[in-house]
Amino acid sequence: MAAGRPHQTGNEVHVKEALPRLHAITDERIARRADVGEAAKALADGGGSDLAFHARGRELTGLEHYTLSVQLSNLPSFLFVNDRLDVALSVPTAGVQLGHGSLSVSAARALNPLWWIGKSVHSLSEAEAARAEGADYLVVGPVFATASHPGRQALGVARLQQIVAAAAELPVIAIGGITVDRVQAVLGSGAYGIAAIRALWDDAEPAEAARRMREWMS
């Protein structure tokens, strides 16, 4: 895992915990599944210390987002809350993931200097802007075509590699159509880690899916 990054508040220097390499992201469909708790526990068992959950769902109500975050925070894995900083403040979280319409990195940093603060980017220019803004890591995609973003053109591995180079020291988490058989190609681009929705949550054996991805990354 990437080493923690120091941040200074007054005379105190804070160091965040290391960033996981495997990120299991929810959407509205997954968040509302009756078995989301069971699937999450299985993923946590298979992912171990390399796994982070992302409580995400743009159409979730505030209560739904909070309930999901509480469920995920009770597992022995890292939790990131996407977009909803109010929810992130109310549960134990390792960090937040900011999108295009979210508050700024500096605003999130002021709320908690120990958070990992990531930005979702879809192009080289967006990656450069997020780096300049002070993001700690980037989630880049979609690398491959994905049902989660049917109208967005896939970046491909070559463009991902360009973004990784532009990100310099920032860890890049690749997302979008990433399956077990694509992990090595993605990591070969220089990406630090991977994120997935369906390839983890929809697998008949979530624990085994997370374990296989960990093995390909090691």
Written overview of the protein:
This protein has 218 residues and is α/β, with parallel strands linked by helices. It has one domain: Aldolase class I (TIM Barrel), CATH 3.20.20. The protein is built from ten helices and ten strands. The chain has an eight-stranded parallel β-barrel, surrounded by six helices. The longest helix is centred in the N-terminal third of the chain and has 12 residues, at 36-47.
Walk me through the topology:
Elements: E1 6-9, E2 12-15, E3 22-25, H1 28-31, H2 36-47, E4 51-55, H3 62-73, E5 78-82, H4 85-90, E6 95-98, H5 105-111, E7 116-121, H6 124-133, E8 137-140, H7 156-167, E9 172-174, H8 183-188, E10 193-196, H9 198-201, H10 206-217
Parallel strand pairs: 3-4, 3-10, 4-5, 5-6, 6-7, 7-8, 8-9, 9-10
Antiparallel strand pairs: 1-2
Helix pairs in contact: 2-10, 6-7
Give short descriptive properties of this protein:
alpha/beta; TIM Barrel; eight-stranded parallel beta barrel; 10 strands
Summarize the structure.
The protein has 218 residues and is an alpha/beta fold. It has ten helices and ten strands.
